[in-house]
Amino acid sequence: MKTNKLFLLLAGVILLLIFLIIFIISWRNFTKELENNSTIPVASLNNQTNTLSNLAPSAPAPTLITPSQEQLEEYLRLHISELSPEPEVLGGKFYVTKITWTNSRSANVEYEDGHIALIGDVKFKEVSSDTPVAQQVIVEYFKVLK
């Protein structure tokens, strides 16, 4: 009985080794075949490129834009409390009192909460023209001047 179990175990191991050897040989042949077929002559690449250039032109690349001052001012008015590095005091809530534009992407913002008044310097980033409108306002920096 022991000999039969040992024989079956040995036969199973031998069969497993045979399958493993067949698999390895097949895999090597497969990878060699892939390597041989993956080389494409340069002339045929040039023909493919020429063929692709005859297709319809692609869409123009997105350009960088600055959102309108109205969009930026609305953003400042809605988010001044989050942007200000100085906290509101005594339960006040910051609101913008004046915006003076220094260029198309930078401004000085006067704001207060009823207890303290501050002036901030803000600069906005340009965004890609394909950016959704809701995500077009990105603050590059916001610093308190006084």
Task: Give the CA-based shape.
Answer: elongated
Q: What's the arrangement of strands in the largest beta sheet?
A: 2-3-4-6
Number of helices: 3
Strand content: 15-25%
Mean pLDDT: 80
Task: Summarize the topology.
Blueprint: H1 2-37, H2 42-53, E1 64-65, H3 69-83, E2 95-103, E3 106-112, E4 117-124, E5 127-128, E6 139-144
Antiparallel strand pairs: 1-5, 2-3, 3-4, 4-6
Pick out its properties.
146 residues; alpha+beta; Nuclear Transport Factor 2, Chain: A; 4-stranded antiparallel β-sheet; 3 helices; 43% helix; 23% strand
Question: What can you see in these coordinates?
Answer:
With 146 residues, this protein is α+β, with helices and mostly antiparallel strands. The chain folds into two domains: 2-53; 64-144, Roll (Nuclear Transport Factor 2, Chain: A). It has helices at 2-37, 42-53, 69-83, and strands spanning 64-65, 95-103, 106-112, 117-124, 127-128, 139-144. The strands form two sheets. Strands 2-3-4-6 form a four-stranded antiparallel beta sheet, with helices on one face. A two-stranded antiparallel sheet has the order 1-5. The model is unreliable at 42-46 (pLDDT under 50).
